[in-house]
Amino acid sequence: MAGHIHTHDHSHRHVHMDAAAGDRRVFLAVVVNLGLTIGQLVGGFFAGSLALIADAVHNFSDAISLGIAFFARKIARRQSDERMTFGYVRAELVAALINYTTLIVVGVYLAYEAILRFFFPQEVEGWLVVAVAGLALVIDAITALLTYSLAKTSANIRAAFLHNVADALGSIAVIIGGALILTFGWHIVDPIVTLIIAGYILWLAFTEVGSVARILMLGVPPEIDVEELIAAIRKIDGVEDIHHVHVWAIDENRNSLEAHIVVPDDMEPDAKAVKDRIRALVRERFGVTHTTLEIERASECHEFGNAKSIGHHIGHQH
């Protein structure tokens, strides 16, 4: 098609079927979590339980997270075009960053509310708390099952899956808190449980957000040692030097390499054999699937021997 740059073929029928099945799972998870949120809010209000309301707020953030993931999945599958030549694959990473940032805000707010409860304690209806939290545990388990297989290949869905695991643990904590209130009348347990949930939410968000930010910042994938990669390329027959090396991830599953390769003056004009050897090496040993190599003759390379091997010189425009 004129006017469109199609770098990848997404037209295989089985891909669309798998994507559609995944979309249905995510949408169902959204509906289930919204229903649970309403139930928990009502139950928490009548029981006077901040822990239950905290869990409801977390579940609502999960529903929003899943909703964003649902639309991001669809956007990410769009073909690359003249405006987005890399395609839209990072839509899910942008969504994941939004979700984790929101989760951090939620965690801080819940911690703040829990601390206030220590100074202004309130009565809590234990039975209602246990009943609603028990329902939440079942719903969390269902949502986790819906998103488990999708979580293996998507940062966004993985975030949603981990949120639901956290929800399930939160529900267990709320049930324990409700049981202690019923048995011993320890109403102080409610804000303590809320703090535990808030702490876990914050720990989860801060742990996961770094990997998403690394990709969006064009960081080197953690599994690749750039110095080792450079050393391996330098050993390839026909390579005299390598500089201006850039290694980054297009998305979670595709790593890219861009570099200037210095070859002897007497090598064939396109140095195809050298490029083929480099591409094979970085693909098999370092998992780099997209490679852009610029060939330079030793006599033409002004930076030969004294160039920075990684990245560009600070302040230089290229």
Low-confidence stretches: 1-17, 313-318
What general outline do the C-alpha atoms trace? elongated
Spatial strand order of the main sheet = 1-2-3
Number of discrete domains: 2
* Topology as a string of helices (H) and strands (E): HHHHHHHEEHE
What is the number of beta strands?
Answer: 3
CATH class of the largest domain: Mainly Alpha
Q: What is the CATH superfamily classification of the largest domain?
A: Cation efflux protein transmembrane domain
From the coordinates shown, what is the CATH architecture of the largest domain?
Up-down Bundle
Helix share bin: 55-70%
Strand content: 5-15%
CATH topology of the largest domain: Alpha-lytic protease prodomain-like
Query: What does the main sheet amount to?
Result: 3 strands, mixed
- Radius of gyration equals 26 Å
**Count of helices?**
8
